[in-house]
Design goal:
The chain contains 13 helices and 14 strands. The protein is α+β, with helices and mostly antiparallel strands and about 325 residues long. The strands form four sheets. A five-stranded antiparallel β-sheet has the order 4-5-10-8-9. Strands 11-12-13-14 form a four-stranded antiparallel β-sheet. Helix 11 runs antiparallel to helix 12 and helix 12 crosses helix 13.
Length: about 325
């Protein structure tokens, strides 16, 4: 780890003033569960680290209109134990429970989860977010069993966020603040597929801090994750569904897949196919099949198509209160 200066900010104004115009100038520290590992491995070497854990306004979970406001420094433990989150957004609670490490849940924050870097081993070994070497991506002809089945250009990594698919499906908005002002970004537009090794996988700029997430009221919603083991591990495929019901039939739907592409994948056609239908095992399976249409697996990850298909089916049945 290279030497760096440290700022323990006690206000948002102090924190934004300590940031710079590039990621090498300064980075934000919240839980540190990802950042410190990146710094130890020299994948990131900022000149300054800005600690935001002491800024009170970045914490807390509260009502916001008919929905909720969740502060960026709220931990996964706080999310899991909050009764409003459990009642209104079981999809978020289910995603949080997928992180089985008590240490990570106690330290990891909402903002940190959304801003964490890819778990791609090529990236972690210093080949950049696109895993480029001699002008060519290492992924298609390399070890790619955990990579994307919905790639975007040379972006073959998968978005690492546990909360991303749920927030996209729920229509959440993310607030970003800099010294010159603030802006609000749809969760669906917060995650991006970079087309250069220097770019980031999120819409956050180097001079900005993610301060809060607001989630509007939602109908029935659920998340289902497929993992190789129950111990701490990243999902192989996930699905979050959000349903608006009219009686027993679906009047509107969102289906978002996770860990299958460089951004959470919005399965628009599959969601539209559910409108006007009753959720049954058959319609849920048909939606799962539609959700993975167009997937282009790499040499070692075709199995993810079946996992994503099943994740959609089980998330829909869970949201509808039907036992799989």
């Amino acid at each position: 780890m290279n030497n760096f200066s440290y700022v323990n900010a006690t206000s948002l104004k102090e924190a934004t003033a300590a940031l710079g115009s590039s990621w090498s100038d300064a980075v934000v520290l919240a839980g540190g569960t990802d950042l410190l590992g990146l710094m130890k491995d020299y994948v990131m070497s900022p000149a300054r680290v800005v600690n935001i854990k002491s800024i009170k306004e970045l914490g807390g979970i509260s009502k916001s209109g008919s929905g909720l406001r969740i502060g960026a420094t709220v931990t996964f433990d706080e999310l899991a134990s909050n009764p409003m989150v459990r009642q209104m957004f079981p999809s978020i609670t289910q995603a949080v429970h997928g992180v089985t490490s008590p240490q990570v849940r106690n330290m990891g924050t909402v903002g940190g989860d959304l801003c964490q870097r890819p778990r791609c081993w090529y990236f972690r070994l210093g080949h950049g977010v696109l895993a480029m070497q001699n002008g060519k991506s290492l992924v298609p002809d390399g070890e790619n069993k955990y990579h994307a089945i919905f790639s975007n250009g040379n972006a073959h990594f998968v978005s690492a966020s546990s909360l991303g698919p749920a927030l996209v499906a729920l229509g959440a908005k993310i607030k970003l603040v800099s010294a010159s002002g603030s802006r609000e970004v749809d969760a669906a537009k917060f995650f991006v597929a970079p087309q250069s090794n220097e770019a980031r996988e999120i819409a956050l700029l180097p001079n900005e801090i993610l301060t809060e997430i607001t989630i509007p009221a939602a109908g029935k919603n659920a998340t289902y994750e497929v993992r190789q083991k129950d111990a701490l591990d990243w999902p192989l495929a996930t699905a979050t569904v959000s349903l608006t019901m009219k009686g027993n039939t679906v009047s509107a739907a969102n289906i978002v897949l996770g860990h299958v592409g460089p951004t959470p994948f919005h399965a628009v056609a599959a969601a539209k196919a559910l409108i006007g239908k009753i959720i049954t095992a058959e319609t849920a399976m048909a939606a799962g099949t539609a959700a993975v249409q167009g997937a282009k697996p790499l040499s070692q990850n075709a199995y993810k198509i079946q996992l994503a298909r099943v994740a959609v089916k089980r998330a829909l049945l869970e949201a509808a209160g039907i036992k799989a």
